[in-house]
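User: quick one, sequence for these tokens?
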């Protein structure tokens, strides 16, 4: 029996759908079929028009069509005054948040695709005039549209496949595990993210790790050195496998020369400082590795800097390798 998936687009840029199209396959529909996944409807991938979609939604609500997984991309727009009328589903006079609530009540699984759907994300930045929120979170606080106690028909809370955008592999691997009945509560971390990627850190596999080990820091965005101390990188705190599960088979933010902004976590969109800056207290970065005591980090950093090879120190403040590794006989 095929695993029926319905994908709705709420308040966001559509970037997670664009990311999905970069999945590592030459035939996306064939991949879904081979995984026993039936995509009932997707705003960018489906050919059905407005009336066919509305008929499909009604069939899902009445149980004529079994809804195994509801995927929601984008934040829920509750404004103005919690009426939801900032965002009506096309062809209806019904707010998108009402459709999401009704469909979530009958869905076997509910998945928040991307950080906007999970926590509110970019859509909830600043004063949040649209009153945007996530499906089961509002930033780091449980609640959101569906409420802190919500459980889908399967008994699971909302599965937060967060990221801005989310990696296509995170989405497809989760759907594949759900379709094969191999995904349960133990597969979720405390924020409801699939552990298949959230048990990793962006720091793992970072191409700048040698510079990090010696605390040889970049001063400019074009420098080769570690971006943590001066340029806002949060890779040692961000839960994701971006540098071991590469994007488009070869890239990541850090491999492209950009600092990690911890986009899989709630509140990343409003860090309280410019993304390219590292806030410090007494010269020490405020955001330290998640599982290292501050005193240990300070001691290790001091020792590392005193032992930094000249090659690493020089190259860290350059946009290309100035000093190559020394050639030396090993015998």
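Assistant:
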């Amino acid at each position: 029996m095929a695993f029926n998936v319905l994908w709705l687009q709420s308040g966001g840029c559509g970037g997670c759908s664009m990311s999905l199209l970069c999945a590592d396959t030459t035939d996306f529909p064939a991949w879904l079929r081979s995984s026993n996944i039936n995509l009932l409807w997707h705003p960018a991938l489906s050919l059905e028009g407005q009336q066919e979609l509305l008929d499909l939604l009604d069939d899902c609500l009445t149980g004529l069509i079994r809804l195994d997984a509801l995927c929601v991309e984008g934040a829920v727009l509750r404004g103005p005054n919690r009426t939801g009328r900032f965002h009506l589903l096309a062809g209806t006079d019904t707010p998108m948040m009402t459709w999401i609530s009704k469909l979530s009540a009958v869905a076997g699984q509910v998945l928040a695709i991307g950080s906007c759907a999970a926590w509110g994300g970019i859509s909830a930045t600043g004063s949040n005039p649209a009153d945007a929120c996530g499906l089961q979170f509002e930033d780091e606080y449980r609640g959101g549209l569906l409420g802190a106690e919500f459980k889908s028909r399967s008994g699971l809370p909302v599965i937060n496949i967060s990221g801005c955008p989310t990696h296509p592999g995170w989405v497809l691997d989760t759907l594949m595990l759900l379709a094969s009945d191999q995904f349960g509560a133990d597969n979720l971390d405390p924020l409801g993210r699939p552990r298949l990627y959230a048990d990793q850190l962006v720091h793992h596999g970072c191409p700048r790790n040698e510079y990090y080990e010696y605390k040889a820091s970049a001063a400019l965005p074009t420098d080769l050195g570690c971006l943590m101390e001066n340029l806002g990188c949060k890779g040692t705190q961000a839960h994701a496998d971006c540098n071991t599960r590469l994007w488009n088979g070869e890239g990541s933010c850090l491999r492209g020369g950009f600092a990690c902004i911890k986009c899989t976590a709630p509140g990343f969109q409003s860090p309280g400082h410019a993304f390219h800056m590292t806030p410090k207290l007494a010269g020490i970065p405020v955001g330290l590795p998640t599982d290292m005591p501050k005193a240990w980090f300070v001691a290790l950093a001091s020792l590392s800097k005193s032992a930094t090879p000249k090659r690493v120190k020089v190259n860290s403040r350059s946009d290309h390798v100035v000093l190559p590794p020394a050639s030396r006989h090993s015998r």
